[in-house]
Protein: Nicotinate phosphoribosyltransferase
Organism: Echinicola pacifica
Amino acid sequence: MKITRDLYQGSLALLTDFYQLTMAYAYWKSGKSEQEAVFNLFFRKNPFQSGFTIAAGLDYVIDYCRNFKFDENDLAYLSEMRKEDGEPTFDPAFIQYLKELDFCCDIDAVEEGSVIFPNTPMIRVKGPLLQCQLLETPMLNIMNFQTLVATKAARITLEAKGDPVLEFGLRRAQGIDGALAASRASYIGGCSSTSNVMAGKLFGIPVSGTHAHSWIMAFESEMAAFEAYADAFPDNCIFLVDTYDTIKGVQNAIRMGELLKEKGKKLLGIRIDSGDLAYYSNVAREMLDEAGFPDAKVVASNDLDEHILSSLKLQEAAIDIWGIGTKLVTAYDQPALGAVYKMAALKDHDGKWVPKVKVSQQSIKINIPGYHNVKRFYKNGKAVSDMIYLENTDLSAQELTIIDPYDPTKRKKISPDQLESKDMLVPIFVKGEKVYTRPLLADIRQKTLSNLEKFDKAHKRLINPHIYPVGLEESLYHLRTNLVLQAKNFN
């Protein structure tokens, strides 16, 4: 089956904050629009008090950048804008500039499905200042949400400990686009399937589902509803058993299982959507086993998340498959990732990169300056630390020091010759041309699962995870400190 790509083939240039356009205009007026800059997209804290984050959304970013342009309707709308005095907001010459704008940025990014951490760039954008600025809002819109949901999904699937997790949050998702993006991100995070048929069509995600309570209520009895469903789908019989009475529902499912067996078919399982899931799943398991259906699965749903799932596992609930909806696709307990997009360097008239730092009264809001990358170190196949470093830094020393960006007492020595390593940022666009081969979504999902395996379980635990070490290479740390002091006029 052909998988549909390029969700957004028309212009989305106006999917931005108005101040991005006013800044772009001011850059153009001041002659700075073509000055080269570097911006980094990153987040400051792992979501959900997690010990890790899963990168997602890059595929949408690629579509956006490939189709980045201002079409005639966009330009007409901007031309009609007026200031308070009635004069045009934008000079006609600027409108013409936008009409002729040709995307030419370099974009390097962490691949989807990668395990990432605070302060490390997810995306690095280099190019004309005006173009870099215009990419801020759409990139944040895309990456914030999908990364958030992928991380939630990964946390849930880790707690499921190998059990299939089905995503079916479409009806509770934040609109049509939010539902599609959430289904995609949930799959990246480890979910096995989605109920969202359009997401299945667009992205190639396996789709799954059986029937609702309304199906049972549409018949004169629960048994009649089961019989009719089995007649329509004899090879996909998972019966929802809690419409009226869960125990009687299981009994009716068993009766149907016996009828199916007589026809050479099989009862795949039951679903419980309410009540004490630990109790009813165990009762159902005993009933199914005693009736000769040990292979029938028990599916559970009902506003589940990783915390409830963990609790049910501790209670030894006999649940084989987990259906997760609202709390996954809405990232229920944290509505936003809080990723930001900050300038890190600006090229001067001599062609030299000048590192830029934003100073704040809150140390967490002080960005990391310079044209930098992230290197991950491994020992015996396990990730041991990440180092943020300037691209032109000599890393040939036998020992390197990484320093926590907010606590200089937290330091770690790295011996590169004794460890494996890789740079986390990979080229996506070079001078506006896509150079990255987009992987299949199923491969991205597998990347998430295999990448998580490379981290110690202490970093993945649900409560109070151990903090994975991420730091600045020593010379970058000192550069940042000096720039902050200079900005505060302490030197």
User: Anything to note?
Assistant: The longest helix spans residues 136-160. Residues 348 and 458 are 45 Å apart (CA to CA). The chain has a mean pLDDT of 95. The first strand starts at residue 36 and ends at 42.
